[in-house]
Amino acid sequence: MRFASGVLVWNDGALHPLETAIEDTPAVTIDTTHQINRIGEQFVELSAFSGDMEMLERLLAAEESVQDFAVTRETGLAYMVYSQSPSMTSLFYILTAYSLVLAPPIEYTDEYTDRGIRLTVVGTDSAITQITADIPPGIDLYPERVGEYVPGGGQLEDLLTERQRDVFEAAVKLGYYEVPREATHEEIAEAVERAPATVSEQLQRIEANLLPRYLDKEAI
């Protein structure tokens, strides 16, 4: 059983029903979709947001396509039921056409040309090969990793994308995690030929992926 992970960028920029409203409201950011299901023409989603949760509730209440929602302000989690999403409709069309399973979470990222979603799909080797060649027009694919799927894999290569591993390895090599710190985001960015803002975001995601697993192991 094989998996493939990468970033999809919709050329029209419509990633999520709230995307336009969120872009106009810097106080709220969508970070990760933990679960999403399609039920008929509706989508049911559990996502994590950061920022002003009262503003998020106002945005959800004002969005015509959102039929129901609940927000847990303490954690930033939002449960949403909505009826319109061209990007999610095309995503589920792809999954169905190639008999692929979506392995959450879905992460929103600015690492490539435009804002996109990083996801992992699981299926046969032939399906994985075919999907990378047959991405529909209007969607750009940035492949990152392909390999044998292991549920809950805990190795570094399972937890980080190739681009994140490059940043992490450069950060360690340059002394970013030494005390006192011996490298800056700008120096790491120069080493991996990326923008400092991108490196900053990737380091945050790396730490968010690795630290909870380390703490879980320590607690056993």
TrEMBL record:
Transmembrane annotation, as ranges: none
InterPro entries registered for this protein in UniProt: HTH_bacterioopsin, HVO_0513_N, WH-like_DNA-bd_sf
Pfam families (UniProt xref): HTH_10 (PF04967), HVO_0513_N (PF24278)
Domain HTH bat-type, chain residue ranges per copy: 160-211
Signal peptide: none
All residue ranges annotated as the HVO-0513-like N-terminal domain in the record: 16-149
Protein name: Transcriptional regulator
UniProt entry keywords in alphabetical sequence: Plasmid, Transcription, Transcription regulation
Superkingdom, taxonomy of origin: Archaea
